[in-house]
Every structure is written in C-alpha cells, then in structure tokens.
Give the backbone structure.
Amino acid sequence: MVWRERTINRWPGLRIRDLRVRLGQSQADLARRIDAITGGDPPLQSNRVHKWERKGVRPHPRYQAALDLIERATPPANPAAREGIDPSITMGRRR
C-alpha cells in the first residue's frame, strides 16, 4: 500500500474570494487567469472557482501554486479602504 501524505489546504474559500475581490475580477476572470498560468489543459471552469469559494472544495495543488503566484503579484488590500475610512487620515495625529 502506498502512503500518500494529505496536503494542507493553503487556499480556503474565503482567501480565494478575498484575492478575487482585491483583483476586481469575476470567478470566470480568475479561472482564465489561472488557466494562463497552468496552461489550461484541461481548461478551468468558473464553477470550479465557485466550488472553492462556497462549497469548501480544495483546489488541486497546481491551482494552489497558480493562486500563490497571483497573490504574490497582487498588492495587499488596504484595510482602511475596506472599512470605508479615508486613507488620508493618519491615526493618532491631528493637524
């Protein structure tokens, strides 16, 4: 019997959705972007991205690697903008 090590899901659904929202892309757009990295054989369908985000399905390791590349190329989210706070206001300082 061959022992297979279980892979850890580095990409839970909320993390994938957060990345997609930061990119301003639809699920289909993200699927096409992943296809561009992985070669798209077989092509990734947008309903698969939906299943990752909403159904708790774990992405295949090659798709996790593509998501890692996309995340590294994406600027971090601005927490102030997400909360609706004016980013020009600095904390604790008054002028």
